[in-house]
């Protein structure tokens, strides 16, 4: 997650606190990569897994919370169009990503998905990931 100033800070009904930060950068002759970073911490709540052994593994692999980070971006934006493109990305966040994150099922599905990803990594035989 970045240390950039926040554009938005949203408290969702499912308990998540979502922030949107501008992480845009100038990269070539007056052109910008406009990028908004959407992030939140998804807490690992007890009771997500039916098996206590699996739940203990999830706590060990994931910790108390798992960061969710997504970038909404557009490349090659002329400096004169920065504000308009940033507003367009914020509207895209409101229309698509905010309802997705606000779904009551999102935290549990995200945690289970991240746990499955970590299990696949640990099954590759890399001891440092265990």
Itemize the secondary structure elements and their pairings.
Layout: E1 6-11, E2 17-22, E3 25-28, E4 31-43, H1 52-62, E5 65-78, H2 82-102, H3 106-122
Antiparallel strand pairs: 1-2, 2-4, 3-4, 4-5
Structure description:
There is one protein chain. Helices cover 38% and strands 33% of the residues. The protein has helices at 52-62, 82-102, 106-122; strands at 6-11, 17-22, 25-28, 31-43, 65-78. The longest helix is centred in the last third of the chain and has 21 residues, at 82-102. It contains three helices and five strands. With 130 residues, it is of the alpha+beta class. The model has no long low-confidence stretch (mean pLDDT 89). Strands 1, 2, 3, 4 and 5 form a five-stranded antiparallel beta sheet that branches. Strand 1 (6-11) and strand 2 form a beta hairpin.
């Amino acid at each position: 997650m970045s240390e950039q100033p926040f554009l938005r800070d949203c408290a969702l009904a499912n308990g998540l606190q979502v922030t949107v930060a501008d992480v845009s950068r100038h990269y070539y002759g007056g052109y910008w990569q406009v990028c908004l970073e959407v992030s939140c911490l998804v807490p690992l709540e007890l009771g997500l897994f039916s098996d206590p052994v699996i739940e203990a593994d999830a706590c060990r692999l994931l910790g108390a919370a798992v960061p969710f980070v997504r970038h909404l971006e557009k490349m090659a934006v002329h400096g004169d169009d920065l504000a308009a493109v940033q507003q367009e990305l914020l509207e895209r966040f409101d229309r698509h990503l905010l309802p997705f994150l606000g779904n009551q099922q999102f935290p549990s599905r995200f945690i289970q998905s991240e746990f499955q990803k970590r299990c696949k990594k640990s099954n590759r035989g890399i001891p440092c990931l265990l």
